[in-house]
């Protein structure tokens, strides 16, 4: 069953589209479903390296955590654009106030004002420019007992369009637009960070895969060494019983068995830890305390091809493809934006303010209206209807016409106050002006620029440091790969020599020309030679992986599409 599962993994892996020269240029790939349901972690699971990588990209928890970062950064970028969403607003106020009268023309001792007023409309910011706009409608219905107020209740409406345009500080490099720019850059940086995490995950899986094979082979070497020591002990006991060797030599053989048992126990523990590490990388949260799964690698490190390494070409590729360098470049871009913003904030504030609107009025004649200034009566009062009973119940409504003595066209309801909006008869409201301010001596502005310049300088130095680190890593990986290739050949020759020396020492022991201690020394030399060989093959495989990782080409060479990997599981 597990073998069928691993075959399904391989097929799922092969359907992934091969990326182009750069991972970020890969077209969106179709959704890749999880290749298998999480297997029960018992029994044996045969896995090739390619299958292990496929499972790891599906199940690795570190990668799953990092998958969220670009998506969160993209939401941050959308939130930044939200600053330019038009805002609908509204507010209303109830008013009931009484004011002691201080106006001689008003016959009331206390002037009352009662009613509601409110304003609503749309307002917002203009992208890039930094200007703000507002479209508003104000309405009120206010009643008064003032004897000099012609209309009560008065229903007033004002419609206006306003614009505030910064000419210096806030022009282009204002806070909302700067945030839009920086969140875009941070989103790109998170994409590069995710690509780096995928590369590191692939590298870790390959390292754990070859490490498991190396630890398994080391365990076999230690088991073989233990068997050899046990056979030597039995032989020495037999020789002791016939009087050929002394009791001391039997003790030496027993010590040799005990030492090799300890080495085997240590090797077995290391092998089981390597199993857990690979299971954790490829199966994610499926590893539990009761798990008894044994992964059986099917690829062998002995199948290798010698590499002709061009360090200069490897460094060139690394400087082109490494996500760490792209992240460093994004940080430089972010600091450049921050510097532009800081320089803009150092400027004085000089804003152009303009608005245009119309005002309308409707209502009824104030029942408390008086045409008397002190004890005198105005001549035109006699012409007004209801003047003999000012404020009485018989006072008629004024139809929508020119109100006497004021020249203002009024009516009896709200819609009458809108009638003349944007017509030649409208009561216009035109406002134009400017706002100027500058802090003295502008400490925050000047030091903000200085700090941003230092931040940018630090980002440039950090990029140079990353470039230097890339060169060191590529040189190290190339050197390790070259030495590993040479070390494989040398370790193979040493194993052959150690095997021959052990064989000869055993023959000498049979003829009484050697001791079990000498045989154990030769056998330990063979174990050391075989360990070196295992280590050389492991270093070779991990160096190949490291070179691809440090060149930034590990995803391309393994046909991993970053867009398919990036989707949430």
**Total number of helices:** 11
Strand-pairing-aware structural class: alpha+beta
The named CATH superfamily of the largest domain? Outer membrane efflux proteins (OEP)
SSE topology string: HEHHEEEEHHEHHEEEEEEHHHH
CATH architecture call of the largest domain: Up-down Bundle
Mean pLDDT: 83
Q: Beta-sheet strand percentage?
A: 15-25%
Low-confidence stretches: 1-37, 373-410
Count of discrete structural domains: 2
Please provide the count of β strands.
12
Computed Rg: 44 Å
Question: What percentage of residues falls in helices of 4 or more residues?
Answer: 40-55%
Shape: elongated
Q: What is the strand arrangement across the widest sheet?
A: 2-3-4-5-7-12
Distance between termini?
24 Å
Task: Report the top-level CATH class of the largest domain.
Answer: Mainly Alpha
Describe this protein's structure.
There is one protein chain. This protein is of the alpha+beta class and 569 residues long. The chain folds into two domains: 2-13 and 42-59 and 178-340 and 445-565, Outer membrane efflux proteins (OEP) (Up-down Bundle); 87-166 and 349-437, no CATH class. Helix content is 52%, strand content 19%. The protein is built from eleven helices and twelve strands. A hairpin with a 6-residue loop joins strand 10 and strand 11 (409-410). The longest helix is centred in the C-terminal third of the chain and has 68 residues, at 443-510. The model is unreliable at 1-37 and 373-410 (pLDDT under 50).
């Amino acid at each position: 069953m597990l073998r069928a599962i691993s075959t399904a993994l391989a097929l799922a892996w092969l359907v992934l589209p091969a990326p182009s020269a750069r991972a970020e240029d890969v077209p969106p790939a179709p959704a890749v479903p999880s290749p298998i349901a999480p297997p029960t972690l018992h029994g044996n699971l045969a896995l090739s390296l390619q299958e292990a990588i496929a499972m790891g990209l599906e199940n690795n928890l570190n990668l799953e955590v990092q998958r969220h970062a670009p998506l969160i950064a993209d939401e941050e970028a959308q939130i930044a654009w939200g600053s330019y969403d038009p805002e609908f607003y509204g507010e209303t106020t109830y008013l009931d106030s009484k004011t002691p009268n201080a106006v001689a023309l008003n016959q009331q001792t206390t002037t009352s004002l009662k009613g509601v007023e409110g304003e609503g409309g749309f307002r917002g910011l203009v992208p890039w420019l930094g200007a703000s706009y507002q479209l508003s409608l104000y309405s009120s219905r206010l009643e008064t007992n003032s004897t000099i107020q012609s209309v009560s209740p008065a229903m007033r409406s004002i419609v206006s369009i306003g614009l505030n345009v910064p000419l210096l500080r806030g022009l282009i490099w204002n806070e909302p637009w700067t945030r839009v720019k920086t969140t875009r850059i941070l989103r790109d940086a998170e994409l590069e960070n995710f690509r780096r995490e995928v590369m590191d995950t692939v590298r870790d899986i390959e390292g754990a895969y070859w490490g498991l094979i190396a630890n398994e082979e080391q365990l076999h070497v230690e088991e073989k060494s233990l068997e050899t020591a046990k056979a030597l002990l039995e032989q020495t006991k037999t020789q002791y019983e016939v009087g050929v060797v002394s009791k001391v030599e039997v003790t030496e053989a027993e010590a040799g068995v005990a030492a090799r048992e300890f080495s085997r126990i240590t090797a077995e523990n290391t092998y089981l830890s390597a199993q857990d590490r690979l299971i954790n990388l490829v199966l994610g949260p499926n590893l539990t305390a009761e798990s008894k799964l044994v992964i059986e690698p099917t690829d062998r490190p002995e199948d290798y091809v010698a590499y002709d390494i061009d360090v200069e070409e490897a460094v060139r590729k690394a400087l082109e493809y490494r996500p760490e360098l792209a992240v460093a470049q994004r940080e430089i871009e972010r600091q450049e934006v921050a510097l532009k913003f800081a320089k803009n904030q150092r400027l004085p504030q000089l804003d152009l303010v303009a608005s245009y609107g119309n005002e309308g009025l409707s209502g009824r004649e104030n029942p408390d209206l008086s045409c008397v200034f002190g004890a005198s009566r105005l001549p035109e009062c006699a012409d007004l209807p209801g003047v003999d009973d000012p404020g009485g119940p018989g006072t008629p409504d004024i139809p929508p016409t020119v109100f006497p003595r004021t020249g203002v066209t009024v009516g009896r309801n709200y819609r009458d106050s809108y009638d003349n909006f944007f017509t030649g008869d409208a009561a216009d409201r035109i406002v134009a002006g400017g706002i100027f301010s500058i802090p003295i001596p502008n400490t925050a502005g000047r030091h903000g620029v200085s700090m941003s310049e230092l931040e940018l300088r630090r980002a440039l130095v950090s990029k140079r440091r990353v470039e230097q680190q890339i060169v060191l890593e590529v040189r190290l990986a190339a050197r390790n790969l070259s030495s590993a290739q040479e070390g494989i050949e040398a370790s193979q020759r040493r194993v052959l020599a150690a095997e021959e020396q052990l064989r000869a020492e055993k023959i000498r022991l049979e003829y009484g020309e050697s001791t079990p201690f000498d045989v154990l020394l030769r056998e330990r030399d063979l174990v050391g030679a075989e360990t070196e060989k295992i280590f050389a093959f492991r270093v070779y495989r991990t160096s190949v992986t490291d070179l691809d990782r440090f060149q930034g080409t590990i995803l391309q060479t393994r046909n991993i599409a970053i867009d398919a990997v990036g989707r949430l599981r």
